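Q: What would this complex look like in 3D?
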Amino acid sequence: MSTPHDPSLDAYWMPFTANRQFKQRPRLLTQASGMHYRTDDGREILDGVAGLWCVNAGHARPRIVQAIARQAGEMDYAPPFQMGHPKAFEFADRLSQLTPAGLNRVFFTNSGSESVETALKIALAWQRARGQGTRTRLIGRERGYHGVNFGGISVGGIVGNRKMFGTLLGGVDHIRHTHDLERNAFSRGQPAHGAELADDLERLVALHDASTIAAVIVEPVAGSTGVLIPPQGYLQRLRDICDRHGILLIFDEVITGFGRTGQPFAAQTFGVTPDLMTVAKGITNGCVPMGAVFVKQEIHDTFMNGPEHLIELFHGYTYSAHPLACAAGLATLDTYAEEGLLTRASELQDYFADGLHSLRGLPHVIDVRNIGLVGGVELAPGPEGPGRRAFNVFLDCFEQGVMVRTTGDIIAMSPPLIIERAQIDRLIETLRTALKRAA
Ligand code: PMP
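A: Here is my prediction, written as structure tokens for the whole assembly.
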């Protein structure tokens, strides 16, 4: 006997979503503009997440929309291997002016996950190219999220994303995460305690020997696993250990890139420069799928200016440097520059932090943390099990016309960088109401 269902919601296998549960209470978005979405039943929703940490300049910005439309009419597609198009070079050049010094070579991908795979492959290939071919081990971190492809879930540290898929990549190890509610709860900005956790990398060097380790990858601020801000001194300590042992340091800036923490990149906010940096999301303001890896020039030069057997990298995608993505990206950079968006989070962060931290003391709130325009509120798990209480808060906020995000017991916010103070107030007050009701 078949159960009643709405056939129109059946065929689409939704990513990271319980389809069955979704169908009971569908949330369908049909329009977006500036700070707001509109639902299929005509409700306006304030976007507290920048879509999914990506629409940093707000939705449907006319300049970006027009650039995409113009490009689609002018040249829809160009093969990226042994061919090029001017906007790809222009976009890479413009990006290289925003990155920390030295990270001035740009490899284009189509997503954060692809950026991670690309960075890991470049790291392995580079160690081999410089005669250190025994360096095949990759180090990630617990609670790290690096996308969903095999390299990314292997170095990633989310059990749910790993356990369904077998043994994953061999030769991967993990350092501990830095989340420490006992010492750091309710920190504003970087927590005071935990720099010494970077010494986990020394422990792995002692265990495996540096001659077997190619690279370590971390998110400067872990986003998807609940807005975990690096303790003061932690990233510098990781950098020092990498330098001592010839290990490449990769920052995954898929969320933190393009202004989220108050500077164009978190590497600049925290004053620590990695050897490779992965980005996506805000690179095109979320309009067209795209990612990139920023690479130190000397790493690039090892391949591209190397001996005859090394004059290219055997890696790339059909849609690397897609013309629509490059056109969107150039218009996005223009928008960011004209409106000062890449540093706007540093102007608003105190106001945002004041609002967030005013939620301290509400029932079940066990931590509030923030940097730039990203914040997390952690709840004690309820009797229904981990994540349920936070998910109910998310649903309540959505009913009230505000979109936040939940990950486990954490409610995360990362609004478009165009947000106004009154909209920050609305975000916080909506959450306050939902938290009180959840009690
Ligand atoms: N790395 C990080 C740090 C991310 O936050 C994400 C996505 N949230 C990814 C990689 C994967 O990006 P994508 O979903 O575009 O593949």
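A: To summarize the key features: The mean pLDDT is 96. The CA atoms of residues 113 and 147 lie 4 Å apart.
Q: Very helpful, thank you.
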